[in-house]
Amino acid sequence: MPDIIQLLPDHVANQIAAGEVVQRPASVVKELLENAIDAGATKISVVVKDAGKTLVQVTDNGVGMSTTDARLSFERHATSKIKTAEDLFNLHTKGFRGEALASIAAIAHVELKTKTEEAEIGTKICIEGSTVVSQEAEVVPQGTTIAVKNLFYNIPARRNFLKSNPVETRHIIDEFHRVALAHPQVAFSMVHNGSDVFNLPPSNIRQRIVNIFGSKTNQKLVPVTEETEIVKVNGFVLKPEFARKSRGEQFFFVNDRFIKSPYLHHAVSSAFEGLIRDRMHPGYFLFLEVKPTTIDINIHPTKTEIKFDDEHSIYAMLRSTIKHGLGQFSVAPVLDFNKDSSFDTPYEYSKKSPVLPTIEVDRDFNPFKEGGAKSGGGFTKYKDKSTNWESLYVGLKGELSGSTDETDVTQIEFESEEVTGRLFDTNETDSGQLTFQLQQKYIISPIKSGLMVIHQHLAHQRILYEELLRNMTVKEAVSQQLLFPMEIELSKPDMEILQKVREQLEHTGFHFESFSEEKISISGIPVGLNDSSAGKVLDQLITDIRDEVPDASFSLNDLLAKSMAKSMAVRTGTALNKAEREHLVNRLFACKEPSVSPDNTQVLITLDVTELDKRFM
Question: Where does the pLDDT of residue 149 fall: very low under 50, low under 70, confident under 90, or very high at 90 and above?
Fold first, then answer.
């Protein structure tokens, strides 16, 4: 039998390795940013075109590379970070495998420009699919500039699997956030398709969070800090009232490296237990500092998962630190036994012993004795008034009827509730239709065959969904004007999302006076929406669009209508009167699809009389 095992060619091995390291354009941004941080850069700029599919360029002012190092950096497993196997457990840098540049060069056109501080002239290298096309000397500033063009040009299948530009852009921004948050002392800037997205000056952690997520984030932050021999915890958690249904602003950093840890996330969630509702997720920006020898980073190709030597202790310390932070800033509820100051012993009597009071008792006192008790000795003399009780009713009839005749007791009417013998009021049957509310969640209506049970929240979602969708297509929405314009602060990425759907929002009834970089002014909202809920509706809308980001205009209208219908629908636990219940039922059966919600959840069920009869057999 001939030998069948053979070594793979270098370009094939590089493409296989690239599949692990470079999954999408955001992976390129992550690797290049981390290389710039390791190079000691204090200023880093990122330029992206077409969500990274056409260009990803990262420029830094770090130490740069010599001509030999520049050429060797694109070889597999070539690195300056480690030299021995023991170094893997004492890492102080972002990268250490030496696979990033080699993997990127295998699937893209790469142009590298670099120069050290000592060198008079720099180096320019062009690589296409792991092949060096050119290498020449060029005048460049100190630092390194890497431009990655035409990503996955030689792997069309991988390129076809990429998502739409908005989705890929969202992933790039997420990676940018993770690196920028971990290094607030470094200035970052980002440009996408010629427009500035971020311009972050050097700052502290709190200022960096505010600069990224908007000024409104500042009031949400609760600082937490603790230092022990095992771990040093520092950072911020969001106040419980700002918890969200989706996992948005959740960041864990261990030794300035972003990680994902469901185990530590559970520690944070348990610290918020009792402060947030079920299925709500808290936000946090937590920085953990541990000894490099107590963690293993080399367990995942993307290095976003690490292993702790003593994760149980870190879990307990993280949980107690967050609880202490929430309690220290009066966010968590506490048992407060406030005592009345009147019960305190006066200062001048604090050292005196209590004196037994003297009590005088009239042992001959008899309240039923003629003439009452003795009047002497400080006792009250009582008078027997039992013989004069009839005088209380003298003139009563005269006051009531204006005459002096005696009162006819049989004509006096007493206030009392009328006993009807009915379970429900008779006015419920005036319209010929009975509707009842069960646990302020379901509307029960009798039909010929039995009973119909309607979920009021899902039913209202269906009603609002079709109404909003009709308004966005027919453009006949009605807006209610606000007496004073409402201002809402948003981050730049959220403002971009809202700007894209501005026209559709105006068709639903929103009226925007102005759009600035981080603030919008609203002068009109859809009819039926409370002005206090407008901000929550827009926040939920931005979150839904960020998670799904459709391409087609119809899909965008559909997503917009779904999101707004969920936010505006009447909530479970809201009491509805008879008119509101019947109006909701009538509007539901005027819909095209009354039986399902916008998310295809069942809205109503029917209980046949035969099913009820079986329960009593």
Answer: very high
Residues sharing a CB contact under 8 Å with residue 485, sequence separation 6 or more, in sequence order: 513, 521, 522, 523
Third-level CATH fold of 442-605: Ribosomal Protein S8; Chain: A, domain 1 (3.30.1370)
Highest-pLDDT range among 94-103, 226-235, 240-249, 496-505: 226-235
Q: What is the DSSP string of 9-62?
A: PHHHHHHHHHHHH-SSHHHHHHHHHHHHHHTT-SEEEEEEEGGGTSEEEEEE-S
Three-state SS across 524-545?
A: EEECCCCHHHHHHHHHHHHHHH
Closest to 37 in 3D by CA, of 140, 188, 233: 188
- The bridge status of strand 43-49 relative to strand 442-447 is unpaired
- Let me know: does 64 contact 114? Beta carbons within 8 Å: yes
Q: In the chain, helix, strand, coil percent, each to 5?
A: 40, 20, 40
Range(s) for CATH 3.30.565.10 in the chain? 10-200
The DSSP bridge pattern shows strands 519-526 and 511-515 to be: antiparallel
> What are 172's two structure tokens?
């790039």
Kindly report the CATH number that applies to the domain delimited by 10-200: 3.30.565.10
CATH assignment of 212-328?
3.30.230.10
Q: CATH 3.30.1370.100: which residues of the chain?
A: 442-605
Q: Where does the pLDDT of residue 56 fall: very low under 50, low under 70, confident under 90, or very high at 90 and above?
A: very high
**Percent of the chain's residues with pLDDT above 90:** 23
Contact (CB, 8 A) for 462 and 456: no
Q: Report pLDDT digits (tens) over 246-304.
A: 777 889 999 888 888 888 999 999 999 888 888 888 999 999 998 888 877 766 666 67
Q: Supply the pLDDT for residue 553.
A: 47
User: How far is CA 3 from each of CA 6, 7, 12, 13, 264, rounded to the nearest angstrom?
Assistant: 8, 12, 20, 20, 49
Residue 305 has φ and ψ, to the nearest 5°, of -125, 135
